[in-house]
Amino acid sequence: MGRVEESIDVDVPVSTAYNQWTQFESFPQFMDGVESVTQVTDTASTWVTTVGGRRQTFTTEVTEQHPDERIAWRSTAGDVDHAGVVTFHRLDDHKTRVMIQIDWEPTDTKEKLGAAVGADTRQVRADARRFKQFIENRGVETGGWRGDVERPD
């Protein structure tokens, strides 16, 4: 199993960073390789990505969510087996640390090699930087879902 951990400080209040992260359909604007995200329900979405020339479609489910604190998810169907959590940490009234952790299962030799040489880590780092630029340039979120999802037992 591969694991990527990344953090970035963004110059917006914690609620702004959190609210933007709940807007999955905006992810193609700052995540390289994400072609589309379609919100199916409050907690389920369908993703289409192209990474390393390989197009993948998968569904994710939010497994835990607490406003201004964390969003956790896992894949439930499709070409990708992964899970992750993003946490939001208030540094001051106008600065937030966003911490990203993704666990995933490489499915073929190309993905295993990419993970071994750190391509997945570089991708997440670059996406985090683009998120920072996206939200700081806007200054406000494109929307927000503040529902609370309790972690299943």
Any key phrases for this structure?
3 helices; 7-stranded antiparallel sheet; Alpha-D-Glucose-1,6-Bisphosphate, Chain A, domain 4; alpha+beta; 153 residues
Describe this structure in words.
24% of the residues lie in helices and 43% in strands. It has a domain of 98 residues: Alpha-D-Glucose-1,6-Bisphosphate, Chain A, domain 4, CATH 3.30.530. Strands 1-7-6-5-4-3-2 form a seven-stranded antiparallel β-sheet, with helices on one face. It is of the alpha+beta class.
Write the layout of secondary structure elements.
Elements: E1 2-10, H1 14-21, E2 34-39, E3 44-51, E4 54-66, E5 70-78, E6 82-92, E7 95-104, H2 109-116, H3 119-138
Antiparallel strand pairs: 1-7, 2-3, 3-4, 4-5, 5-6, 6-7
Question: Rg, please?
Answer: 15 Å
Class of the domain at 2-20 and 60-138 in CATH?
A: Alpha Beta
- How are the strands ordered across the major sheet? 1-7-6-5-4-3-2
- CATH fold category name of the domain at 2-20 and 60-138: Alpha-D-Glucose-1,6-Bisphosphate, Chain A, domain 4
Q: Shape from CA axes?
A: globular
How does the major sheet shape up?
7 strands, antiparallel
Spell out the helices and strands N to C.
EHEEEEEEHH
Secondary structure tally, helices: 3
Mean pLDDT: 94
> How many strand elements?
7
What is the second-level CATH architecture of the domain at 2-20 and 60-138? 2-Layer Sandwich
Gap from first CA to last CA: 23 Å
Assign the CATH superfamily of the domain at 2-20 and 60-138.
Answer: START domain
Q: In percent, how much strand structure appears in the residues?
A: 35-45%
Q: Please estimate the helix content.
A: 10-25%
Q: pLDDT under 50 segments (min length 5)?
A: none
